[in-house]
Every structure is written in C-alpha cells, then in structure tokens.
Amino acid sequence: MSRQHASAMAIPAVGPRARMRAFFGTSAARVATAALLILVAGAVLAPWIAPQNPFDLAQLDILASRLPPLSRGASGALYLLGTDDQGRDILSAILYGLRISLVVATVSVSFAFVLGTAFGMIAGTAGGRIDALMMRIVDIQLSVPAILVALVLLALLGRGVDKIIVALVSVQWVYFARTARAVALVEKRREYIDAARNLGFSQARILVGHLLPNALAPLIVVATVEVAHAIALEATLSFLGVGLPVTRPSLGLLIANGFAFMLNGEYWISVFPGVALVLVVFAINLAADRMRDVLDPRRTP
Amino acid sequence: MSPTVCPDGASQGATSEGHFAAEAPVLRVAALRTEFATAAGIVPVVDGVDFALARGEVLGIVGESGSGKSVTAYSILGLVEPPGRVTGGRVLLGDIDLLALPPEALAAIRGARVSMVFQDPMMSLNPVLRVDTQIIEALRAHGSIGRHDAHARAADALARVGIAAPEERLRSYPHELSGGMRQRVCIAIAMLHQPEVIIADEPTTALDVTIQAQILSEMQALCASSGTALLWITHDLSVVASFADRVCVMYAGRIVESGPVDVVIGAPRHPYTRGLLDSVPALAAGGRRLAPIPGMPLAPADLDAGCAFRHRCARASERCALAPDETFPAPGRTLRCHHPLDRAADRDS
Amino acid sequence: MSPPILEAHALEKRFAVRRHRDPRARRSAATSVLALDGVTLHVDAHEIVGVVGESGCGKSTLARIVCGLSTASGGSVRYRGEDVGSLDKAKRLRYTLAVQMVFQNPFAALNPRHRVSRIVGEALMVHGLVPAKEHEACVVDQLARVGLPADSRDRYPHQFSGGQRQRIGIARALAVNPEVLVCDEVVSALDVSIQAQILNLLLDLRASLGLGSMFISHDLGVIRYLCDRIAVMYLGRIVEEAPARTFFSQPAHPYAVALLAELPAPVAGKRRFEPIRGEIPSPIDPPAGCHFHPRCPHAFDRCRVEQPVLREIAPGHRAACHLHDRP
Predict the structure, then answer these.
(1) The domain C6-263+278-324: what is its CATH number?
(2) Residue ranges per structural domain of chain C
(3) ipTM of predicted assembly, 2 dp
C-alpha cells in the first residue's frame, strides 16, 4: 500500500498546465517546438513575408533563372536561396510550398482522425463479429503499402489538391482506427463506463461524452505523427508526379523540379526545399515523441 | 523531527517481556529514517522507527496506506528504490548493521538469514519458469546442493507449507496455481534456508478469507517450530489481534504505540490506536455504531515537526505542535502521545 | 403484500470458457461456466441485504445483473414484480435509475475527464429530473448528503482521496433518487478508518432516505455491522439465507459456520486457527452433488451425488444442506 502511495507521488503530470510544463521539460522538445513555430509562422505568413509570389507569373523574371544563393536579380532583389529554372525565388517557393504541404497534411489528418476514430471506437465498443469484421478491413488495408494505395488511387482520380487529400485520408484513417479501437477496448471495461450505463445514458452519449475524452491522448499523439507522415507522403507523391498539380508547387514538387539540375551542380533548387521538408518532419516527430511521454502515463519514467 | 534515538529502549522493550527475556533480539531496528524525493521536496516516509524482534516472535506492524509500514520493511532489506533513500538509523541482524553492508553482502543475507514474502506472489515468482526451477535456484543461491537432493528438498518444502501433491505442483508454472497456492510457494521459498527473520508484507491481503486462515495457521506453526521471527506488515488489525505476539502501530512514518498485542488492543493508550479499533466492524461490540477517525491523514509533504495525528485527534492541544517523545508506560510498551488515554477511562467506553 | 422492489428470480449466468486462455480449463471438458446457478434473492425498502462469499462465488455477477449491466442466461430480474426484460422504454429507464450501483474501485469508477459537477449532475440534465436552473443546487445537495463540501463540484476526481471518491460515487447514485443501492465491495479498497466512515454513511442514508441496499462483500465483519439479512454464496449458489441475528447465532450451513469461525473475536489474544480444508474449487469444473462437500467436515455419501436444494429450515431461514433435510 505504501508502495502505491510512493509511486502515486512520483507521477507529476496531471492537469493540462502540469502537462504543458512536463512537455517543455526537455531541451529537444523546446527546440523542436521553436523550429516548428518558425516554420509554421513562415508558411502562414508567406503572402506577407515572402519576397515574391511564386504563383504570379508576372513577378517571375526568366532572365534570373537558376541563380545561385545570395545573388541579386536585375531589379536588385536579393535571392537568398537562389532561383529555379523559371526564375522563381527558392525561399518564396519554399514558404508557399510549405504552406501547401501543411494545409494538405492537416486537412487530410483531420479527416482521417474523425473517420478512423469513429470506426475504431465503434468496432471496439461493439465487439464480437462486428469488431472482427471491421478490424479485418483495417488489417487488409495495412498489409498493402501506403504509397501503393495512394498511387493507385491517384492514378484513378487524377491530380488535384482534393484528390491527394482523399488519397492521404484513405491510407491514414487505419492508424486512427487501430489506436481508437485499442483504447476503446481498455476504457469500455472501466467502471465509469458501467456507471454511465447504469444512469441510463444513450450509447452515443457514452461513446462521445465519456469514452472519447479518455481516448484522446493517444489519438493526439498518433495525429501528430501522422501529420509528419502526410507531409512526407505527399512530398513523395508530388515528387513522383502524381500528387499536386504544377500550379500548386508543394515541397515535393519543388524537389522534383530541381532534381534535373542537381548534376549541373545547381544543388540549391532541390536541396533547400529538401532541407525544409526534413526540418518540419523531424520537428513534428520530436514533438510527438515528447507528447507521447507526457500524455501516456504508462511511459512516465 | 529529531528521532528519539533509543535503541536500548527498544531492545529493553523486547527483552523485558516475559517469555523472551533470556535472549537478545535477532533483529533490531533503531532510528530508521527513509526519505522520498517528490515534486514537493524531500519528505520523510519513515521517520525514526525503533523496534526489536526476538527469536520465534511474531511482531505485527499495523498502519494505513501511507503510514510507512511497507517502506519500513523494504528499508530493512535495502529494497528501497529511488526516489526513496534510507538516510539514517541502524538495522542490526545479530551484530551486523544491514544498512552499512555493501550490496553483495546484503544479497547474501537476503533469502538466507532474512527473507521476504510480498503481497503479490507474482512479484517474487518468475512467470515463465516452473516452480521446481525457482525453488532449486533459491536453494543453490545460498549453498551448493546436488540436483537430486535439491529436488527432494523442494518437494519437502512445498509439503511443509501444506501443498498437497507437491511433486505435481513442482512441475507447474505459477499461472497454473491458484493465488493461495502461489503464496504458499513464496512462503516455502522464504523458509528454505531456515532464516532468522521473515518479513511478510500483507501476505494474505489478496487472498480469500478461508485461504487466509489456512496460510496464517501454517505460518504460525512453521515459525513456532523453527524459531523464525516474523515481521508481519498489515493494515488489518483484526488479523494482528489474533495472530501476533506484539504489535507496533504506525502513523505517518512513526510508531505511535507498541506493546504486547493483548495489551495494546485490549487497552490502547494512543488515540489513533483507539480510533483504529473503533473503526473495525469485526472488532466492534455487537450493535454499537462505529466511531471512525474523522478526516484523513495528511500528505507526507504537509507534515510538520508536531504530532502528525493532532489534526484528527479529539484530545489534541497546543502542546501537540511539538513532537511527543517516546515514553515507556509499562514494561515492553512504548507510546508517543502528549495526552494518552488512561486505562480506567478506556475500560468504560 | 406488494412485491419487493428488486427481486432476482432463479437467475442463471453462463459464461463461455476460452480454453486457450484459461489454464484451469485445459484439463476439463466443460465449455462454459455456470457463474450463477438458480439464485433467488430480494431487496425491500429500508433493508440492507448482505451477500457474502469468496472469489468465484458469483456475487459480483449477481450485482451486475440486478443492475442491468449484464444479462442473465436464465431466470429473471423483477422490479416491483415486473420482469425487467419485458419493460417498455419509459419503465425500463425508471428501473435503471431505481437500482443504482456503487462500484468497488473508487479510482476507476469516476470519469477522470469530468468535473464532479458533471459526474453527479449529468443524469439530472440528460433525463430532465430537475429543472435546469436547479441543477447546481441539486448537485450541492447530493454532495452535502455524502459529506462533501460544495466547492468539490469544480474539481476533478484525481484531486480527491479514495474515501472521498467513494463518496462522490455514492452522490452520483443518489442524484437519480434510487430505491435500491447495489454496493459491490465498496469499502474493500479503503483504509479501515475511512471504511468505517463510509459504512456509517450508508447506515445514515438508509435511515434518512429509506433506501434498500444489496451489500456485497467478502468481509463478514462488515456484513454483520451493516446488514439485516444475509445470503451466503458458494460457487454460484446461495447456500444459506437468514436474518442477520439468526445467521450469526445459528448458522446452518457448514460453509457459513466455517466463514464465521474466521471472523476475528472482539477480544484480543493469540489463538490457533482451525481453518477449513482445501482450496475453492474451480467454477469451471465444480464438484458434483453439493459443491462444498470436498471441504465439508460433515460430508456423507449423499452429499457427493445429490445437490441439496435451498429450503426453509425455520421461518425466514433458508439453507441448502442435507444435514438439515429432516422432514
């Protein structure tokens, strides 16, 4: 009994504020969050802070194409990270590309979150044959590589922001479904769920009002990881030329664009978007790791 | 906060008692102090605990959650893990101070001269090894023994704790046994080397009533026949009442009252002991309403130097803001209270 | 005579055995466990009925079934004489709210993400039991009834101790104006001094609200303190049922006698234990005849083959034992 007591004293993070404090307890988490904030701010504020609008053809100067970093164009504008083959400022292209990548990733993850969580929670609480059937669907989906599913879908649907979101949602919902089911299976056996049933609450109220709030922590961790996955997957698809249309150059497309010039030594067209991609994915993963440590009591050291 | 260091007093307590008068105690704990580092700073969980254990004696340590009774047990065997740390006192087994021993030397004593039985048998049984493997391993840990002999001794050990068909049980895995059977295996392992002391931490709390009674009676018989002393950690006053020779009542890391079990339970002097007794339905006289202690214990971090019980105590006065010293109201008895109950008043209630 | 508020009638509950999961089942040919085997018991207003037994006796299963949290495989649960399986929606809700469970584990029984105000008050809102503007006051009333201060309502369960959480659980049940409380081992996780507080609270509630209770426990001491009538269960069957005074003075079933012998005497002093022999048999493969015969000091041939039926041996005193089978 005293041992329980002692371990109870050792769990520090209860309540949102304590969790926040615990989250920022490591320098890795602080650096990752700072990097993420800067990248997201850059993406959000791109129209106001980017030197040029890479979508506005009038602003592009074909004479200033493929300039190395830190060179100046005819108009005297500084190209901090150089320009691409159409005279686009790489820095601006990265900021706008990041914007597209982030929007696509968060929108698709949000849809996948809602769909997958609903699916998993229903499977977990229903149990029996319904659960078995629903989970076999998930297993089948998981046994096919995500990139393959996305490639096939995009080949059928064609290119477009909406289409890639559909493709991403259809490969990502399974992760939410699996996690949601696992949590639902554990939580539904808790006495507080029995208590809610004993008070005559409807199944829907118990699921949404009682079970879901207790299942959120692990799902939020999954969501964070999946945002990073979505960014990387979208970049891969765009790089392969089946993702976003060329009129909306995301990071993947930028990397693909510059790829042909790598051998000429014009590295910057591909490498800087690549660095931006790695940075954002890495930062999100670091934050997700820390979030897992803080939110999941079983992992609390 | 100053622990009243009186190992002599404690040993006096044990030796002055009739049937153990001739012998020196086998285990003597003096001014034991164990602290835990928490978010609120360093808090003492065991704060100056003294007691002595004579050969063949059953000493019950009674307390509620957070009283420090289990941490006391763990401290004796050097099993306190960070954020906890034993910061003071002595634990004398014969004339060896266990707290001063290097880890290897302590490990050699653990299981051989002092052994431990936990509340959850699965804490000491390995779920993937058969029972015979585990008993033989424990045998070989403290002395070399041939395979055949070891097996015979293992079967014998199980038979002694009342396990029917020991040969069959030896070939079982722990999960194939019932809870009571598992606890019996743990007790058999603890008794293997005829230790001088067994420390049992709530060994029957998780078991059914009828099984608990069986195990209690077997342990009672084993200790009596082998002269092993038993330190019995429990929250259950009613078990102590019918099982122990002496009892120490712990509250907030200190022993507030101790003495022969019939005296302490028959005529408690500390208001906390009285309150505990008045809270046990099984001990309440027929039809009388229980008179529970009001409120609840303070968190260790909120304790100050005074009597930890004064916030729940009807007899508390300003004096209680100062820690009461340990007094010895009768041979073999200790008490820490500024306003103890007197015996006459006690009989009336 | 009006029917009792809550009645379990010849309840049976069969669980499928997952052979690969349960090592005890491997050696047996059985494919199911009879967790409840013809259990009949009723609870009236103002009375506390104790159900006592060891692990595997089916007492928790009984609690879950009479509360409607689990369904029986046979027999029926009756609320004011009506089989709850055939109630319409409105009556079904009335029954659900009338029979409220208080749970064993005070740490798992409260939703950790809800404030106390919602834990206690949600049912009031959902079922429209009191006008919206009186919710707040009603929650405070319930908290006061169980001895918690009004400002508890803005806090979360983790901010309370075990005993206080158990009080919150009781307040939650009281909020819907139940007629029967089903308490499953509600004090076994609590320290003795806190346990006594909760037991006294239950007695006070009976006195002030006239609640009936089914109080399930393994602790005969607690049962003796609290209950008016006592049922002893062993491996899915009720083996004895009697008014408390009769039960403690003249227990009829050898198992009840054995349980009473373990009850510590109020007088201190070391004593020898004379425990009953043997382990509790696995419910998967219970002994034939009387389930208790392998451990019974009085067992004779008939006990090994013929299952004794629960019959009245004195007014209000029922026992299932061949020893009491004289005509």
Answers:
(1) 3.40.50.300
(2) 6-263+278-324
(3) 0.87
